[in-house]
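Batch job 17 of 40 flagged for manual review because the log was empty.
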Amino acid sequence: MKELLKIYENKQPEIVFNWKDSETEAEGWTVINSLRGGAAGGGTRMREGLDLNEVLSLAKTMEVKFTVSGPAIGGAKSGINFNPQDPRKKGVLERWYKAVSPLLKNYYGTGGDLNVDEIHEVIPMTEDVGVWHPQEGVFNGHFKPSEADKINRIGQLRHGVIKVIESPIYSPDIASKFTIADMITGFGVAEAVRHYYDIYGGTVVGKRTIVQGFGNVGSAAAYYLAQMGAKVVGIIDIVGGVINEDGFTFEEVKELFLNKKGNTLFSEKMIPFSEVNERIWELKSEVFAPCAASRLVKQEQINKMIERGLEVVSCGANVPFADKEIFFGSIMEDTDKKVSLIPDFISNCGMARVFAYFMERRVKMSDEAIFKDTSDVIKKALQRTFAKSASKTRISETAFEIALKELI
């Protein structure tokens, strides 16, 4: 696996598009790792301090993810180095999408990502520059459908991603009109834990769980894990956190979800970040869902959790460990050798899978069909990994080997 990984990591990307904004200090990159299958896909993120290397590593991660989620295309990513809280954000994004629109028309498909909203920013802004849908390039480059078929499938995609969830099984509150895009990635992170225990032995019920990050992914993961019967004992977010060693009830987790301030945790019992960051890693827990930004989880934090009985990690963030390497850094490798580590390209493939699902011809548009499809794809990926090695350790290494053999 290490040799395959080295070859894959060192291979230069096919396309690197660099943009400098004419009106602000913003700089952006689209990295297309390869045009496998005639197209490439990956979301658009924005954060201050982002660089080309981050975008490159995420593009390579996307390509691995597509071996699980489909379609069989190359990986890509867009990133803009700019403060997302800056009031000039809207203008920056509008000019970015105008600049990148030729790629989006022909062979690149994008979506929302860190600090960039799929429904309120990506879709309307790409439409304004003449792109039918942010995934149009994947249709044109990979599927090459007839005009009529393209219209039908883009319509399906448009309606599907912004579809309001009507089922109380999948929505924390019907009246709040949560969409598929709001919930599907976190749902997949939780389902990965459930399938892990079903396949490798055990049950998610009663497992003490720590969630890092409480944006779209982390809050949804916490909600669905609590719904399954896991005990959420701690949540750490950018502004602070909450701890209950006996586990929050499902109703309490649901309340935390519904009381978010924007995309951050809010609670009357909020513990300041510095304090929660000291205490949370000392809690006894079996399940850890890192769902914040990339490269945050430190060796000493994961060591403490392992010492206190950690069993499984389900990655909501891409590359959650604070490693310099693109993929399999020392922290990730050490964790993989000691506990069950479900890699990001399996556990957080929900949104990529939803795109792939809606790109197919005439699919069922019910909540149950959409969520079940994502769950089944994650289950199948874990079953393939288990078939290759039934060991509860080195799951990520085994999964990478399966994916890389497909790509190299």
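Reviewer: the log was empty due to a logging misconfiguration, but the result itself is present. The radius of gyration is 20 Å. Unflagging and moving on to job 18.
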